[in-house]
């Protein structure tokens, strides 16, 4: 098809690209075409074709014609910065569309107010084959569907480029500093620069590789700020080409307009140098007769006696090469639709508001993710099979998450693998075989995926031990909500446990005992049964307020990470919330939540707690909780940099909006406010000044407690001084331990030594309580040690009167405290302070309360 009419995708006034206030489009850097100043709000297909790119911000889309031309439609100028607000896509990458079909709807009023311009370029991007734009309509009004221009394909001979001279390959890595990633305009600049050299230049991001001369191919990399890109070039001017392109990528300027005034986002650290547990070794299975003990990290506390049931991951084999792009595209579309339907059905079956439902919702989002579809489509176009392409797209995302070096993100790779497996299964067309578990099965797996766990009968599972896995992975969270004791990171030795072996899983001590002696088994079984009965009794009593045996009131409240945690917390006897980690509202977004959005959420949480106290911690961003839109400057040591309250003071508009949102919650006294990571007196003063300003603005006169977290040694050491200005203290033992012991809390190599019961940490807690008492302030603990039942009496003995724990720990914490007087607690606290190591403290507590 040498010539093709391209229709207007929008009604409006057509102008030449040269008149645009954007040097990239005006300079035809991305390609030739026209621009339309729209008078309607739906972008339509200008010809038949396949959607090959839908930008994650939903403002731009590329359609490939049957002849291989790429038509890029870009709604407005600089609209990538809206991060998707105001755009509703109606198509997905890989979808075949007909002329006139709706592609994207947009909110004209919103764009008119927030975008630089509504004028929308429609251009033929420079690809591997050349096309000429002819007979273009200019300087008049069109309605959608009118002919806009004619596309003429150049002959192969005319487009054949001279082969560059062979030469040595030049390569270098560069960190992408363009804040909004390699989107249309920077990709255009880079490709134009690449076309100025004879060398063939490729840019690779993990396993994806793009031809640097093709803007569409570069966009298809999905490269984000902070990604490490590898440039390779071969040809006579390879070295100069690589230098020039690397400079463009590393300088971080947007293609037009002034460079952003803020600093470039931090470079992404290379993946954590955590050795992946080796693939299970084929070492001989353990034999009956000799007890073997493996150790792991407890993820869900509890003990179980049962029968080993190794769960082998079912591998779905995929062919690399497909039966042609059209067939493979169709297969992938069908598999995605099936997976979507299955997930929706599973979501429908999971209890409303349950964590399981939320996890499945996240999986549904992956199945519907346009970037994944786009990446898979690119591989299919290159001749790969649907399964291979989908797997590759997922692997790339897994690399991205791992590359962030953030545990929370790395643990989400399980979910991606799970979605990968689900879609591959759908592609294979085979139904999954049902697994029949023995009674009291202790599941053993290299790693378990959330959907695998969801399909097994929970009542038959006594425990779970995983060779890999993370303490906060979704599968651990699901196991926690099902009450299944779970050990993670047991290592490759787990593969040596044979099916049917009797095992004792102790997710308190962190051990898996294989082939224990018969006597031990009997003893352990009795103790597990007694423990089960004990926890049932503890749960029955959990709804009473907590008082020591001498009547001293100790509040036992819950840590909440969001609204969804409330039902579980109340069911376990939480007397309120001692720490609402407000980050949940700020994560996974492209801009900060507005005051109104925050207010509505806090109000719902306050209502959900039915009048119980609610302590909202202001945003604790930075370090392991990065929010790209905050544009925090690059730091060598982010844990020691701009984080916690420092971020709020650095960007006071954020803190102000959060204070306003909290102060507007009704009834007025229910919420208290807590500032994270206070290290200096000046920080409380600055935050309080802002708080008082906001109170005056709102005419808020009711008393509201403004407290601080004590999680930096300086705060504990200066507790008397700080107590004069803070209404209460809550000890963040996770960070306090990290900073006291100088051990990174996300470094798995130090996980075993990072212990909040270390006497050094206990002494800091004692100092905090002592300082608080001078000004009659109350002290709580909301870090991890508040959820260790045996630690509760020690903390109370040091002067703590509020414990904010995970929901699961509340019944046991209350039960232990109820049997003790304040005097008992003080005695054990003094003994703990006198120990010389965390291990010794644990020993002391285990001897004192062996059952707890
Ligand atoms: C802590 O540091 O103990 C704490 C509760 O805060 P986070 O774990 O959210 O940093
Ligand atoms: Mg903390």
From TrEMBL:
What catalytic activity does the UniProt entry give for this protein?
Answer: L-histidyl-[protein] + phosphoenolpyruvate = N(pros)-phospho-L-histidyl-[protein] + pyruvate
Please identify the protein, giving its name as recorded: phosphoenolpyruvate--protein phosphotransferase
| Principal place of residence | cytoplasm
**EC number annotated for this UniProt entry:** 2.7.3.9
Q: Which family does it belong to?
A: Belongs to the PEP-utilizing enzyme family.
Q: Which PROSITE patterns match?
A: PEP_ENZYMES_2, PTS_EIIA_TYPE_1, PTS_EIIA_TYPE_1_HIS, PTS_HPR_DOM
InterPro entries, alphabetized: Dup_hybrid_motif (IPR011055), HPr-like (IPR000032), HPr-like_sf (IPR035895), PEP-util_enz_mobile_dom (IPR008279), PEP-utilizing_PTS_enzyme (IPR050499), PEP_util_C (IPR000121), PEP_util_CS (IPR023151), Phosphohistidine_dom_sf (IPR036637)
Specify the species. Rhodovastum atsumiense
- Among the record's GO biological process terms, what is one? phosphoenolpyruvate-dependent sugar phosphotransferase system
Q: Which residues form the PTS EIIA type-1 domain?
A: 22-126
């Amino acid at each position: 098809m040498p010539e093709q009419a391209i229709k207007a995708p929008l009604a409006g006034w057509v102008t030449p690209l040269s008149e645009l206030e954007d040097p990239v489009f005006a300079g035809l850097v991305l390609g030739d075409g026209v621009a339309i100043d729209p008078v309607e709000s739906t972008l339509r297909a200008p010809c038949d074709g396949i959607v090959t790119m839908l930008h994650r911000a939903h403002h731009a889309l590329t359609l490939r014609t049957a002849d291989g031309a790429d038509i890029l439609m870009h709604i407005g100028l600089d609209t990538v910065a809206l991060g998707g607000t105001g755009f509703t896509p109606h198509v997905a990458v890989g979808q075949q569309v007909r002329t006139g079909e709706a592609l994207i709807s947009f909110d004209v009023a919103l764009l008119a107010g927030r975008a630089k311009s509504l004028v929308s370029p429609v251009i033929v991007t420079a690809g591997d084959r050349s096309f000429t734009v002819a007979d273009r309509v200019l300087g008049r009004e069109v309605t959608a569907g009118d002919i806009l221009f004619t596309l003429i394909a150049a002959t192969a001979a005319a487009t054949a480029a001279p082969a560059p001279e062979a030469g040595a390959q030049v390569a270098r890595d560069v960190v992408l500093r363009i804040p909004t990633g390699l989107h249309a305009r920077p990709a255009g600049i880079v490709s134009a620069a690449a076309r100025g050299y004879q060398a063939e230049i490729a840019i690779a991001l993990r396993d994806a590789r793009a031809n640097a001369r093709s803007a569409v191919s570069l966009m298809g990399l999905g490269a984000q700020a902070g990604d490490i890109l590898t440039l390779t070039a071969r040809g006579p001017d390879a070295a100069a080409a690589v230098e020039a392109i690397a400079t463009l990528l590393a300088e971080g300027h947007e293609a037009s307009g002034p460079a952003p005034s803020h600093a470039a986002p931090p470079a992404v650290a290379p993946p954590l140098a955590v050795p992946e547990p080796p693939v299970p070794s084929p070492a001989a299975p353990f034999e009956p007769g000799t007890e073997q003990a493996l150790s792991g990290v407890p993820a869900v506390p509890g003990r179980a006696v049962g029968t080993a049931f190794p769960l082998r991951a079912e591998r779905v084999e995929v062919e690399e090469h497909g039966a042609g792009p059209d067939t493979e595209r169709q297969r992938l579309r069908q598999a995605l639709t099936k997976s979507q339907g299955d997930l929706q059905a599973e979501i429908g079956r999971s209890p409303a508001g349950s964590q399981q439902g939320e996890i499945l919702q996240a999986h549904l989002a992956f199945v519907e993710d346009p970037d994944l579809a786009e990446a898979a489509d690119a591989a299919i176009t290159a001749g790969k099979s649907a399964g291979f392409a989908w797997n590759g797209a997922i692997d790339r995302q897994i690399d991205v998450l791992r590359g962030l070096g953030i545990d929370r993100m790395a643990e989400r790779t399980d979910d991606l693998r799970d979605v990968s497996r689900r879609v591959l299964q759908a592609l294979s067309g085979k139904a999954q075989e049902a697994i029949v578990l023995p009674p009291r099965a202790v599941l053993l797996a290299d790693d378990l995926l959330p959907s695998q766990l969801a399909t097994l009968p929970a009542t038959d599972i006594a425990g779970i031990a995983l060779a890999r896995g993370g303490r906060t992975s979704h599968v651990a969270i699901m196991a926690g909500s099902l009450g299944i004791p779970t050990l993670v990171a047991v290592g490759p030795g787990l593969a040596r446990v044979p099916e049917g072996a009797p095992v004792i899983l102790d997710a308190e001590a962190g051990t898996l005992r294989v082939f224990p002696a018969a006597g031990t088994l009997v003893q352990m079984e009795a103790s597990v049964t007694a423990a089960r009965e004990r926890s049932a009794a503890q749960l029955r009593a959990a709804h009473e307020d907590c008082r020591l045996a001498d009547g001293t009131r100790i509040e036992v409240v819950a840590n909440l990470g969001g609204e969804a945690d409330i039902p579980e917390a109340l069911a376990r006897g939480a007397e309120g919330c001692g720490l609402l980690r407000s980050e949940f509202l700020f994560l996974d977004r492209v801009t900060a939540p507005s005051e109104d959005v925050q207010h509505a959420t806090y109000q719902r949480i306050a209502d959900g707690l039915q009048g119980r106290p609610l302590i909202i911690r202001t945003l604790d961003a930075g370090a392991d909780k990065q929010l790209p839109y905050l544009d925090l400057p690059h730091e060598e040591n982010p844990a020691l940099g701009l984080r916690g309250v420092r971020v709020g003071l650095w960007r006071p508009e954020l803190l102000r909006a959060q204070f306003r949102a909290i102060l507007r919650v009704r009834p007025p006294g229910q919420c208290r406010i807590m500032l994270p990571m206070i290290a200096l007196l000046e920080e409380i003063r600055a935050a309080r000044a802002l708080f008082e300003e906001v109170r005056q603005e709102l005419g808020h006169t009711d008393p509201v407690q403004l407290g601080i977290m004590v999680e930096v040694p300086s705060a504990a050491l200066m507790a008397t001084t700080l107590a004069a200005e803070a209404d209460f203290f809550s000890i963040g033992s996770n960070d306090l331990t990290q900073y006291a012991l100088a051990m990174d809390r996300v470094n798995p190599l130090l996980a075993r030594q990072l212990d909040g019961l270390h006497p050094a940490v206990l002494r800091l807690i004692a100092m905090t309580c002592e300082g608080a008492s001078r000004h009659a302030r109350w002290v709580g603990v909301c870090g991890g040690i508040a959820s260790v039942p045996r630690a509760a009496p020690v903390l109370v003995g040091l002067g703590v009167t509020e414990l904010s724990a995970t929901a699961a720990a509340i019944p046991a914490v209350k039960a232990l405290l109820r049997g003790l007087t304040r005097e008992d607690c003080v005695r054990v606290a003094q003994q703990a302070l006198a120990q010389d190591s965390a291990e010794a403290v644990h020993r002391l507590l285990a001897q004192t309360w062996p059952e707890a």
